[in-house]
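ingest -> validate -> predict -> emit
validate: passed (alphabet ok, no gaps, 756 aa)
predict: started
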Amino acid sequence: MQTHLLGFSRMGKLRELKRALETYWKGEIGAEELIATGQELRARHWKLQRGAGIELLPVGDFSCYDHMLDMTAALGAVPARYGAPDGGVDLDAYFQMARGGQGVPAMEMSKWFDTNYHYIVPELAPDQRFSVNVNKLLTEIEEAKQLGGPIKAVLPGPITFCTMSKSTDPGFDRFELLSAIVEAYEELLGQIGGQCDWIQLDEPVLAQELPDEVKGAFNNAYDALLKAASPAKAMLATYFGSIAHNLDELEDLPLHALHVDLVRAPGQLDAVLESLPKQTKLSLGVVNGRNIWKVDADKALEQIRQAVNTLGSDRIMLAPSCSLLHVPVDLEDEPELPTDIKRWMAFGVQKCQEVGKLAAAATGQDVATWLDENRAAWDSRRSDPALHRQDVRERIGSLSPTMYARPLPYAERRPAQRERLGLPLLPTTTIGSFPQTTDIRAARRDYKRGDLSEETYLQRMRDCIRGVVNRQEELGLDVLVHGEPERNDMVEYFGEQLDGFCFTNNGWVQSYGSRCVKPPVIYGDVARSKPMTVTWSEFAQSLTDKPMKGMLTGPVTILCWSFVRDDQPRSETCRQIALAIRDEVADLEQVGLGIIQVDEPALREGAPLRVSDWDEYFRWAVDCFRLAANVAAPETQIHTHMCYCDFNDIIEHIAAMDADVISLEASRSRMELLEAFRLFEYPNEVGPGIYDIHSPRVPSVDEMANLLRRAVAVLPVDRLWANPDCGLKTRGWEETTASLRNMVEAARIMRQELRP
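emit:
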């Protein structure tokens, strides 16, 4: 019963890759040192996997930025603005595609299915040509061979690659290129098929409802790809949901193995077993690759035994449900976690061990001690009284319909807000955070360690806030923010002040590029014991006569960007968080804040992969936002922010949130998302981002003014705002100041153009 992984963490347990990337981008190290860091991490991670009981090692899952960007480079599908690939994409061109630079904008980013991982969106043009280069993959295959044992090349599959791409020209159907993409894959697989034992092609789109253009394409595509991959065996990997509704697309396909996610979709096993071709092995994803809780070994073994009874043990493989990219590396690096909670957890290395132990148990080996420890941990978790609070449950039970609605509709709130705030046409603002300098991070670190007194820490944070407020006033921004110097992360900061959360020291996971997040862990009922942001916002407002926004993270985003308890419905946990944020909104309003922003960038991300399952999710997700925000009085302006998701798909649900102002990521797509507003008459105010904060380049005044002109062509100008795409936490002060100065000037120019 062979064990394997679909992928592993790239960053390293101490974020070694992040540091190497950022020093390379600053010019402090050369390409050789960056490449050497990658080699060292790959070797270390393969040894960890093999030592934990993984037999078939993944190769190609490592990336210096993103696996979809790697695939774009391997296929030579490089947009023309970066120059034609000649012998492969070098590092400079690769990072320019990801981050922009030299006056050239970056490629778009979007969320990888329903995760908080951002991928670089491939661009496909009508005249697209492909130029295959597999040097990177062949190099890594040779590295893995040095360890001995079987290896498996890991690639995004062609159907997923095409589906997750975008068409560059309006009206062009990118699926017209599917046959050309498959031909490029054939060439690629032909070059690596003799160098590895297995080739894994990831097709998570099978968990979705397939577009008409894709239906029927799997058989033709994979018939050709399996021949090209020989002598390597081919595995088609699916994850993040059930594929039971798409099994007919795989009928009679001579796969060597099919991987299914039995954590997210345990109910699909019967259908998969019934339809699996006789020559195909079944890889069971029984260990959760998306969350940090221990596997329920008894439950997993039931699934394994069912599969063995139907297929025989020689046709079963075991793995985590998906790539371990989404979980931290090693639980052993967390000595400060509470012991009783830590025993319920498993990180990447431990999940590899779980796969090995389950394989051993399923094949009759003696792992009784491990099974007893696993059952004891689960019994402890199920019976722990700290997980269930009576006061929280009673408050949830007392909710009434009026708590979900504002006292007045937007059309009647708007005049009161305008009178209170006195804002100009096209008001300018930012999303919330400002650059987090080394000094700011050091102050937080030293305070947390006890090396800095509370009085000194508070004074340093006030000084930072005063500086940010002064800068904004000098730049001429209309609505200010306090800059969030006290916040380590937009979710972790709130989790640290809420009951029911615990935290890691090294639980880092990749969000995009070098950006890592350390998700908090929701293990029990959530409640707020004291105000979380009021002191900082009240102080910031005292420094200026301009409106100051109170900045909060919304309940759906806190839910989605945490490792969430899995012993109750997510909707119930989300409602508990919503009540905590509701109390904060009320307190901010009480101290005089006239604008409060409740960010929900994860609203779309949290949706099920199948559109037919959306109604139930959006019903409770939108309700949770409304429960959190709608305690505000009519004259208080409620903002929300979203980024890097498909707004066109969910515009009616965004409207149902009834925020007075929504700010959106829009600059990388050059306002393409505004098509949603052309087709749907959005009733409230909108701030489409005109400054791409994920790129180090400074956009010009003309560039931002032109984006505003595109917005004005779609939306009423008296309901438009000017703002960046997202928060400015990761940017430097020099580029931030220059970009915001250009943004304010672009808004001024547009006001002159639009003045009656």
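The chain is about 40% helix and 10% strand.
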